[in-house]
């Protein structure tokens, strides 16, 4: 077991990830659902990528965005879960300073990318439902590629300063991070310096990304709902509402825990550490697990392609 006593150093070569503070005795039990979610996320997203690549009928804007989302989910979950399971199973708490900064960059950058892709998918649904006759002319392959590139570059560019800001501070009190991964504010709070620039920049990025993206998603679904309620068929309304409801649940599962994690680090000192850490893991674990199910299994085109693939192999 790692000794978590504070040490005195200036430039740490390693950090120690505590895991879930206060629940160390339950790490093995907590690892069971975490590992299960990771396996489902891996298999589900790889399967989605395979189906979209092999079936030409799925070479459409919605499925291109879905494949981008699957790659992002694989990156997010893989950047955290293997190390997290190492902590839970083998008490492997140590992580090098540069590995910690790398993990931090991937987590925050691809969280921003995922947020942008959720906006893209909401806008795709808006065009498909509200303006179906112009869907193919508006969302061409070129437009889809540009939208995906913008989502990627925005996440990478806005999150690149985080590890550089963390790297510049001296760490002279403790190298113990009370978290399961190198979350930005959890690490930077260990610095022996005024970290207000980190906090302000991080908060500005959150407001910019989440504020813009949630507004765009909300406006898209408001227009979608207006169109749905004007549909003549009750069955069509229920079917579209069911699909949109599932999508909204995935979106809320991503944004609510993410905002809780980001904001409580800055404004609340009364949330128990284990509660904060568990919720901070939800938005990195649950959406990658749910996205293949909600966007994949419940999508008729993918179900039909999967059935056709299996029937072909059987015959």
UniProtKB/TrEMBL annotation:
Give residue ranges for domain G-protein coupled receptors family 1 profile. Answer: 44-295
Pfam families referenced in this protein's UniProt entry, alphabetically: 7tm_4
Major localization listed first in the record, in broad terms: membrane
Q: Where in the cell is it found?
A: Cell membrane; Membrane
Q: Which InterPro entries match?
A: GPCR_Rhodpsn (IPR000276), GPCR_Rhodpsn_7TM (IPR017452), Olfact_rcpt (IPR000725), OR51/52/56-like (IPR050402)
Query: Which residue ranges does UniProt annotate as crossing the membrane?
Result: 26-51, 63-85, 105-126, 138-159, 200-222, 243-263, 278-297
Q: What are the UniProt keywords, alphabetically?
A: Cell membrane, G-protein coupled receptor, Membrane, Olfaction, Receptor, Sensory transduction, Transducer, Transmembrane, Transmembrane helix
GO cellular component annotations of the record: plasma membrane
Please give the CDD domains that the UniProt record associates with this protein.
7tmA_OR52R_52L-like
Q: Does the keyword Transmembrane helix apply?
A: yes
Summary of the function given for this chain in its UniProt record: Putative odorant or sperm cell receptor. Odorant receptor.
What's this protein's family per the entry?
Belongs to the G-protein coupled receptor 1 family.
- Record-given protein name: Olfactory receptor
* Source organism of this protein record: Nyctereutes procyonoides
Q: What is the lineage of its organism?
A: Eukaryota, Metazoa, Chordata, Craniata, Vertebrata
